[in-house]
Amino acid sequence: MNLEKSTTMLLDSLHLLSNQTKQDYECENSKPWRKSLNPSRELENATEEIDSIKPDLVQLNMNGIITINSQPKINGVKSTDHVFGWGPTNGYVYQKQYLEFLLPKSKLAKLVSQITAVNEENGYDTLNYFVTDADSNKLSETNITDLSDVNAVTWGCFPGREIAQPTIVEKVSFLAWKDELYLILKKWSSVLLASSNDEESEPDEANRLRDLKSSNFIQSLIKDYVLVNIVDNNYIQPSDTIFHILKNL
């Protein structure tokens, strides 16, 4: 999904946005280059693919872990499957579970400790992770030794063709994604702060106060949270290791 739209949907689901602030944001950001960023994905919405993990995602968000991007694991699903299928017919598709989210900085040390424990128990890096924050232009935490490595998290096998790997996780794209995410959050915080001070556009004092609280909350996401990506390399076992760890933080 388009990151700008998914971020807006997330903030809206947290009841941080009013109709007026959404209009203000659209007006502020209706630049010609904006629509060209993801021209084929502007109308894309959440799909059935996340239904199997939706309860886990909801629980994490209710517990203050703000999920941004995710996919469940699948192992050898037919390419014609109406939910997970893609590519030519007579093929099979695979996915590693991954989750990208904003985590309070105070919980990072425990998360890293639990990931390390899982990997040591399994004898290999079942879980790989990247961590960064708004003020950094590099990774602040990772257990990947070769940062040029590319981890394919979606791939497909089709008769007479090379294996297709349409979705990967790697350092460069993660850091670029980080820059875009924090830019969007900063824009939203600015729009909400301006709305909270604009009595002419928003005469209702209660709404202005809500906009101020929303702006402050988004600022806390920028300052007090880290951006984390975790990939579960064990796509065969049905267990949801990532969610199990996060629920116990």
Instruction: List the strand order in the largest sheet.
Output: 1-4-9-5-6
Tally of extended strands?
9
Task: Detail the poorly predicted runs.
Answer: 30-41
Q: How many separate structural domains? A: 1
Mean pLDDT across all residues, rounded?
86
Intertermini distance? 28 Å
What's the helix-strand series? HHHHEEEEHEEEEHHEH
**Shape call:** globular
Number of helices: 8
How is the biggest beta sheet arranged? Answer: 5 strands, antiparallel
Q: Strand fraction band? A: 15-25%
What's the helical proportion of residues? 40-55%
* Radius of gyration, taken over Cα atoms and rounded to an integer in Å: 20 Å
Structural class: alpha+beta
Oligomer: single chain
Outline the structure in words:
It holds the Pfam family MTHFR_C. It comes from Pichia membranifaciens. InterPro entries: MTHFR_C. Helix content is 41%, strand content 21%. Helix 2 (19-28) crosses helix 6 (171-196) and helix 6 packs antiparallel against helix 7 (205-224). The longest helix has 26 residues, at 171-196. It has one domain. The radius of gyration is 20 Å and the shape is globular. It has eight helices and nine strands. The protein is of the alpha+beta class.
Brief digest:
The protein has about 250 residues and is of the alpha+beta class. It has helices spanning about 5-15, 20-30, 30-35, 55-60, 110-120, 170-195, 205-225, 240-245, and strands spanning about 65-70, 75-80, 90-95, 95-105, 125-130, 140, 150-155, 165-170, 225-230.
Helices, strands, pairings?
Layout: H1 3-13, H2 19-28, H3 32-36, H4 54-62, E1 66-71, E2 74-78, E3 92-95, E4 97-104, H5 108-122, E5 127-132, E6 141-142, E7 151-157, E8 164-169, H6 171-196, H7 205-224, E9 225-232, H8 241-247
Antiparallel strand pairs: 1-4, 2-3, 3-7, 4-9, 5-6, 5-9, 7-8
